[in-house]
Amino acid sequence: MNLRQMEVFRAVMESGSVTGAARQLNISQPAVTGLLRHTEDNLRFRLFERIRGRLEPTPEARALYAQVTQVFDRVDATNRVVAGLQDSRLGTLDIVAIPALGVTLLPSAIGTFLVRHRDSRLRFHMRPRQEMMEQIASGAADLGFGFLSPVSPRVAARELLRADLVCIMPRGHPLAEKPSVSVDDLAPWPIIAYTSAQGLSPIINAILAEARLAITPAVEVGLVINAWSMVAQGAGIAIVDPHSGYRELFPGVEVRRFTPAVPLGLEVLQAQDRPLSRLATAFLRHCERFLSAT
Known about the structure:
Layout: H1 3-15, H2 18-25, H3 29-43, E1 48-51, E2 54-57, H4 59-86, E3 92-97, H5 99-102, H6 105-116, E4 121-126, H7 129-138, E5 143-146, E6 155-164, E7 166-170, E8 180-182, E9 192-194, H8 200-210, E10 219-221, H9 224-232, E11 238-240, E12 253-259, E13 263-271, H10 278-293
Parallel strand pairs: 3-4, 3-5, 8-12, 9-10
Antiparallel strand pairs: 1-2, 5-13, 6-13, 7-11, 7-12
């Protein structure tokens, strides 16, 4: 039986008549009768008997109907998947981000995305910068989010947002009275610096070197969130990226503009040789709107 024959057979079984099947399928009664007769000829057994003016399914038809129903259940499920993929609701999306963006920014974007894409399945990981690049290049992740990402021939990077570095200090700190903090303002105060593995380290070291400030760090940290934590505890002041979004986690920390202005781009990464799925594209568009609104 082909799919059309199964469709006619099911319609007759469920409606109980040729007339009902024709109405259900929006075709003529002779067309239903002809397809049904052709199906019985192919099968070499009867599907229906006319008893007292009614079509009664044969035992063979009842056995066949159970199997045909399963076929159409699968067809319906396939159509629902297709519709979901068309609407970018179904599928699995693997997202990876550096820790600086993975604590609050990406979870917030993912949460608002899932409000309108509840059937979608997302996997989210935080990884160090180099490991994130490897996951994108190998196809283990669909989208990556970071800043200061190293150049790779296998990974395409696109800037989503650009903003300047900021200076953070404990609430009540004398520098908090200033609308912006200059590099010269840092001299009297203990500085939270970064280990060499942190991408911000060479940028900040270059700023200090150009200003000819020889500053001994109060402490060195490997993650931006650790800098915020140290500042919150009064260990010093720090220069941090503008994208992480840790303000809500550390209400006791003040944020001020830093001069000279040093722009930092928030980047989305994807494999160079693979197109994005509809779900990934939808999430990326959502991130662009989300970032423009924050």
